[in-house]
Every structure is written in structure tokens, then in C-alpha cells.
Design goal:
binds pyridoxal-5'-phosphate; alpha/beta; nine-stranded mixed β-sheet; globular; Lyase, Ornithine Decarboxylase, Chain A, domain 1; 29% helix; TIM Barrel
């Protein structure tokens, strides 16, 4: 459920007509609903209320400072994947005691910064990384709390680019090698083993892969116990899917109901890293139709947003619903069109072969479900300034990121003297 609905014939975000936001800020722009964000976080958090747990929002899905602060105020931690994300999380006020550092390629500098900040733990992805973290920890005189990321080899049945828990994946340590790696880690002086982690993929629309993965992880925890290695945190990752089109993903409560029997008597703290399910349907990208172009075999609607603003359609062939802001426009005769942007790439599209009510130039459109992996993947390709982000709360429009200027585009660039 989200707070983008037609009222009085036009699309609203909470109590604000989206057309008013477009008028004040121009297009394209990202619009987020405060009420939706809070509701989604609470739904997830409260689903697990009977088990000791930490929700660490996967901030790669949306790392705007205001969104992170909002999450932190609701009690969320952060799942980070870089030094830059650590900086953002701390700046936004996420407590270090709820920050978890994941990712296959942490640099020594990033590890040092995270140790100095005293984050909750590192999710380790390889044998080499265990040694690297041990060395850095020794150099700063600290013990690094760690979990090993297990690759449970289950098929999450999602897009291959966002599937992470199968044998061929670059992520995690194979389940059958985990014991050996844990034993090795336990022999290192500056490593404190605290957890087991598994994250099998994103946009999962069934609880079965979560349960299959968890069974393997629970078996491993048992084996580790037999070896005197006591685990305190069981991290099940993120990955719960959302409705973009006609998907019927499980609710957080369904996930909680499915896994609770497996974990409730283990005496562990459950850690979860949801991203998309919290922010995905809490945001839209607003764009304006510029031109209609009748091609040889297709009709194109050219809009002012492009793949540099929202790359998911180009990158994953992802589906985003497109709605006119004017409800009546949605009742016009339907026509099959491609919605494309101004970027000079054939892969620049927001929708392909989509049957949509006829769109006229000048009309405003909402690209729905754009709150996750939207703005965070934006680039300046074609020297397009990145678009603003706004947070709507009740009747108020809060700009949480200004539109970039042309000066922003050249920030940090210099022409060497020999060229002058
Ligand atoms: C991307 C990622 C997440 C979040 O995934 P969502 O599908 O957005 O919930 C959580 N944990 C790890 C390790 C990730 O890489």
C-alpha cells in the first residue's frame, strides 16, 4: 500500500497534488511519501516483534540523508556497502551499533574507518577478506566483529543480475566450506565471530527460497556450536519483493510467519537488511512528455527523464507502471508506445511496447515504484544534471536534494596549465 492515489481527478502524494510539486520544482523529479516510508518500515519491524531483532535498512536502495534520518528515527540501522555509505549513515545519525558492512571488495581504508566508528559487524565474503580485516583490526588495536556470508546455493527465481545466492555468484562463501573458514577465522587474534549471514537475492516474490536458505544456515549454526563457535546474530539479508506490475509478493508478516518456527528457539538476535520493500513503492519519478514521434514501425513518446535518472528499465528490463497525473487522460484510447528519454542510447527507455492511454506532449507522467534503486543509480551521462528529490509529509513539500546545476556538472574538473 502507498500514498500515491488519484483524488479530485489527479494524482496526489499524501495531501499534495503531484502536479503542484512539478510546477514548483520542474521535471523530472523524484517524490517520496513520508507516510508510506514510515508505514513500510513499521510493517517490517513489527512483523518480527516476537523475536529479538535488528532491522538494518539496505541503504544502497536509497541513501538520501533525509530518508536515512527518517529510518534511524524509526529505529532502523543501516546495511552499508562502502566507506561513502558509512559516511552517509553516520552523518544522518544512524547509530554505529546498528551498522553492518557488506560487500565483496572492502578496502583497508574503508575497514579502518568502520572499525574506528565501532560498527556492529562486518559481513565477510571471502577467505582473503578475513585476513585483511584481521590485519587492519590489529593495526588499530581493535577486534573486528564479523559474520561470514554463506552462499546457500538456492535459486531465488529472480532476475539473474539480482540473484546472489547461487554457486556461480561472486557473493558469499560456499556452505560446505563455511566450517573450515569459521575455524580459520576463530584462530585469528583480532577477529570476533558473532554471526552468520545469507542474502540470496532481490525482488523475491515467494518465501520458499528464504526458508530453504535459512534451513542451511541453521544447520551450520548447529555445527559451529559443536565446534565451540557460538553465534549471536543470524542475518537473513533483505530481498523481499514488491509489486511493480502484477507480482503478488509475500508481506513482511508472511516472511516472519514462515521463518519464525526455525529461529525463535535459537536464542539469537535476528538481523534483516530490507531495502526495496521499504522504499520501492514509497517513491515516484515525475516526468513530462516532450514530443510524440511516429517511427516506421513504432510510436515513441519522448519524455524529459532518461536512463541516467532511472536506469532499471535499461539495466534489468524492469517494469515500471506509467500513470498520467491527470486521471482523465488515463481513459483515452490506448496505443502501444515506447516511452524514451533524450539520452543518445538505444537502451534509453522507461517503458517498451507498452499499451497506454494516448499521451500528448506537455503532459505530466508518474513513473511508479521508483523509490528503490532509482535516484541512487542516477548519473550525469550526457551531462544531464541529476534531478531533485522531495519528501512529502502531510501537506508539505520538503526538498531533500536540490536539482544539480551546470556548475555541479564540472565540479572538481580542471584544465591543466599546458592547455591554456
Ligand atoms: C542489496 C542487498 C540488500 C537489500 O536488498 P533488497 O532487495 O533491496 O531488500 C540486503 N543485503 C545485501 C547484502 C544486499 O546486497
Amino acid at each position: 500500500m502507498n500514498n500515491f492515489e488519484y483524488r479530485h481527478g489527479e494524482l496526489y502524494c499524501e495531501h499534495v497534488p503531484v502536479s503542484r510539486i512539478a510546477k514548483e520544482l520542474g521535471t523530472p523529479c523524484y517524490v517520496y511519501s513520508h507516510a508510506t516510508l514510515v508505514r513500510h518500515f513499521k510493517a517490517y519491524d513489527s512483523a518480527f516483534k516476537n523475536i529479538p531483532h535488528i532491522v538494518a535498512f539496505a541503504m544502497k536502495a536509497n541513501s538520501n540523508l533525509a530518508i536515512l534520518r527518517l529510518m534511524a528515527k524509526e529505529g532502523s540501522g543501516a546495511d552499508i556497502v562502502s566507506g561513502g555509505e558509512l559516511f552517509r549513515a553516520l552523518t544522518a545519525g544512524v547509530p554505529a551499533s546498528k551498522i553492518i558492512f557488506a560487500g565483496v571488495g572492502k578496502s583497508a581504508d574503508e575497514i579502518r574507518d568502520a572499525l574506528k566508528a565501532d560498527i556492529l559487524m562486518f559481513n565477510i565474503e571471502s577467505s582473503a577478506e578475513i585476513h585483511a580485516i584481521n590485519e587492519v583490526a590489529a593495526s588499530v588495536g581493535k577486534k573486528a566483529r564479523i559474520a561470514l556470508r554463506i552462499n546457500p546455493d538456492v535459486d531465488p527465481k529472480t532476475h539473474p543480475y539480482i540473484s546472489t545466492g547461487m554457486k556461480k555468484s561472486k557473493f558469499g562463501i560456499a556452505a560446505d566450506r563455511a566450517l573450515e573458514e569459521y575455524k580459520m577465522a576463530s584462530s585469528l587474534s583480532h577477529i570476533d565471530i558473532v554471526g552468520v549471514h545469507a542474502h540470496i537475492g532481490s525482488q523475491l516474490t515467494d518465501v520458499t527460497p528464504f526458508v530453504d536458505s535459512l534451513k542451511k544456515v541453521v544447520a551450520l549454526i548447529d555445527t559451529l556450536k559443536g565446534q565451540g563457535i557460538n553465534i549471536r546474530y543470524l542475518n537473513i539479508g533483505g530481498g523481499l519483493g514488491i509489486t511493480y506490475d502484477a507480482e503478488k509478493p509475500p508481506l513482511p508478516q508472511d516472511l516472519a510467519d514462515a521463518i519464525s518456527p526455525l529461529v525463535k528457539d535459537l536464542g539469537l538476535t535476528l538481523v534483516m537488511e530490507p531495502g526495496r520493500v521499504i522504499v520501492g513503492n514509497a517513491g515516484i519519478l515525475v516526468t513530462k512528455a516532450l514530443y510524440r514521434k511516429e517511427g516506421e514501425s513504432k510510436t515513441f513518446v519522448i519524455v524529459d527523464a532518461a536512463m541516467n535518472d532511472l536506469i532499471r528499465p535499461s539495466l534489468y528490463g524492469a517494469y515500471h507502471e506509467i500513470r498520467p497525473l491527470d486521471e482523465a487522460a488515463g481513459r483515452r484510447d490506448k496505443q502501444q508506445v515506447d516511452i524514451v528519454g533524450p539520452v543518445c542510447e538505444s537502451g534509453d527507455f522507461l517503458a517498451k511496447d507498452r499499451l497506454l492511454a494516448t499521451i500528448q506532449p506537455g503532459e505530466l507522467l508518474a513513473v511508479m515504484s521508483a523509490g528503490a534503486y532509482g535516484f541512487v543509480m542516477a548519473s550525469n551521462y550526457n551531462s544531464r544534471p541529476r534531478v531533485p528529490e522531495v519528501l512529502i509529509k502531510d501537506g508539505e513539500i520538503h526538498v531533500i536534494r536540490a536539482r544539480e546545476t551546470y556548475d555541479d556538472l564540472i565540479k572538481g574538473e580542471t584544465i591543466p596549465a599546458f592547455l591554456s
